[in-house]
Structures are given as structure tokens and as C-alpha cells.
Design goal:
By secondary structure, the chain is an alpha+beta fold. It is built from 13 helices and 15 strands. The protein has 3 domains: 50 residues, no CATH class; 122 residues, 2-Layer Sandwich (Beta Polymerase, domain 2), CATH 3.30.460; 147 residues, Conserved hypothetical protein from pyrococcus furiosus pfu- 392566-001, domain 2, CATH 3.30.1760. Helix content is 36%, strand content 17%.
Amino acid sequence: METMAEYLAELVKAGLEDRKEGVSVREIVKISEENHMDYLLLGALLKTDGLSEEEKELLREKVLGSMLFTGMQLQELKKLEERMEQAKIPCQPMKGARMKFYYPSPFLREMSDIDILIHGDFMEQAAVELEAMGYVLQQKIKHHDIYRKAPGIVVEAHRAMYDRTVDERQYAYFSDLSRAVRRKGFLYVYDFEAEDGIRHRVWIVDDDLAVAAIEKAFAAVDALYIADGHHRAASAFKVGMKRRRTHPAYNGTEEFNYFLAVLFPEDELKIMDYNRLVKSLNGWSKEDFLERIRRDFTVEYVGKEAVSPSKKGEFGMYLDHDWYRLNVHPDKTSEDPVDGLDVSILQMNLLDPVLGIEDPRTDENIEFVGGIRGLGELEKRCHEDMVVAFSMYPTSIRELLAVADAGRLMPPKSTWFEPKLRSGLFIHQIEK
């Protein structure tokens, strides 16, 4: 046992210092699993000599499993923080949830659960938010409550950092939530809040084991979808191919072989509405225009209350200081993945035949406004330099994937994604 303790200590140091150690002890696998140290210990063990390929593959699978679970915990922690912030519940992640960022890699500090400190006056409100997120209360233990959520995510909601019955002075000191503040300055290469209120944090992943595990994880992904920027992606690809032709000795490491991309899980991506503004009625009077569009849409007068479409096939229209609700006639819908999109329905049945906008990419009579700016922006522009505005029902993720699966392209200005990433942080020279 004394020898095992020495091996354990050496492996911990090897993992933290990113160095090789001549240790090949199979019992370390069991110790690492029992103590939630798979990435730290098994990652160091992978770097030792004398292991068979079968043993190495086993270790890689366990390390990958640890990374995936840790990544899932980090995503859940992010959701928890955002939820509590929106609900104005004072809280502070603590213990492993914060200590892991002081390690060379956050994966080195595994945790069996997520600990969050919540101001005692807000515990009942926090419980409501946790239950709304799918958590089930398992147990109340002195100064914290234990919540569980599939698949295996556990949250300990603490009323205090210390049990009052154990140490009254420590309890009094740490009950002031303002004292539980995380140090900043060296955890990220970038950490700032942009003018739109969006927080940006950037980490560099350069640990060889982490990179290898990420590569292996993505090797099992069948397909990635370009949700936004397919024209830019195609242009970047063409530029890269051109540079390869002019540099026949390239080895694949040159900057022109790469372009920026960001990946989101499907269930965490939200598409907002992309609304339309039109400068003129193409010679129609207001009355004639309304009568004309009734051929293809039901037109309901609403008045001053802004119309935000509540379903597919419904549109809001702002004209002459009033709002209308439009619903397309059933015979104008389509099962085609592109023609059936709301942006296509509006284009083919109103913008083109009525307002004369044949190509929305180039026509100067139309402009587009992202839904993040709100319907008030449509009203404002119609009072300034526009005549009519259309509010859209957002394109769904399912619709976007269906278009891609059919080998088609989305119509222009179909989707608006938020938040906008500060891609300028990563601009690079493709050729010096």
C-alpha cells in the first residue's frame, strides 16, 4: 500500500507537470475511478512505457469518457449560472466547479457533482428554478440540498460554505456571499463583455491528450451542418485551394489550409426571426395593395399592437402606422424543404409578384433587420425611410437541417443567430 501511494503521488505530479513517468501499475486504473481522477492519472499513465496497445486503448476510452462527462458538467454549470442570473438569485459556483480552472487543463480536476453556493434567503426560489431545469430533490443534508438530473448530473445547492453546527465563526464569515469571489486574470486568454452585453471567454486547448480525445470524439460525428455563413465557407475553401495550386510544396500546416468555424450542439442553437423592410409599394395605393395581397393571404387588421407571428405561415405587417396579421392560404404552402420556408412563401407570393422584388440579394427596395433589434425597429424605420415592414416567424432548426439534407441552400436572409461571436479575435493571415 505504501508503494501504491508513492505511485499515486508520482502520477499526480506527472499529470500536473505534463511529464512522463516510468510507472505502469494496473491498480492505478481502479484508484483513479474510485477517486474521480481518471483524466489526471490515466492520462499520465498513457505517457509511460511498457503498455500494450490494448491497454492504451482502454485508457484512452476511459479518459475520453471522463472528458465527455466533464464537458457535460461544464455545459450544465453554464446553464445553471445563466438561469440563476436571469432569476436574480445570488449564487456562486465553488469547490471543483471553480478550482478546475486553476489547473493546466480543466479536465485535470474532475468532480462528482456541481457545488453552488446560494444565498440562504433565495433557496426556495432556487429550488423552483432547479426543478424547472429537470432536477429532482434527492436529499436535504444540513447546509446543502442534493439534486439529481439524468444522465448522472448532481448539483449540491449550499446554503452556506460551512455547517453552522461545526464552526460558527466560519459560517458567519462565509455566509456573506460577497466573500466568495473567484480570482480572475489568468484563467482565459480573453475574457470581456462586448457592447451588446454578451460575455466572451476564450481558452486555448493545447494539451496533447485533450486534443487527441477531442479528435477521437469528433471522428464519430456523422455530419456537421453549416447553419450560417455557407457562402463565406465556400469562398474560404476556394481561396485555400487556389493557394495550394500556387504553392505545390505545401504540407498542410500553412494558414491558408484553415478557416474559422464554431460548433454548437443542435439543442443549444436558437434561430431568431429575420424581418423585412420595403421602401415602396411598387406603385400600389394602400387600399389596392391590401386588396391584392388578399388573393394569397388572409388579412386581419390589428392596430397599434405589434404583431409577432406565433406559428408557421403567419406574418406581421406594419403599414401606415398600423399592424396587420397575415396568414398564407393553405394552397400556397409547399412540402418542398426550401419552397415551404416562410421566407420563401413571402418572397414568392408577395415580395416578388406584388412589390416587384425579384432578387432580394441585390434589390435596393428591400432591407433586412435581425430579430434581436425587436419589432420597434421596424416601426421606427417605417416612420423614417421605409413604407412597409414584415415580421417573420423564425426558421426552425429542423427546417434548416432538412434543407441541408436535401442538398439545397437556404434562401438569403433566412436565419438570424444570436449571440454574434467576435470572430475578429481569431483573424489570421492566410499568407505572409
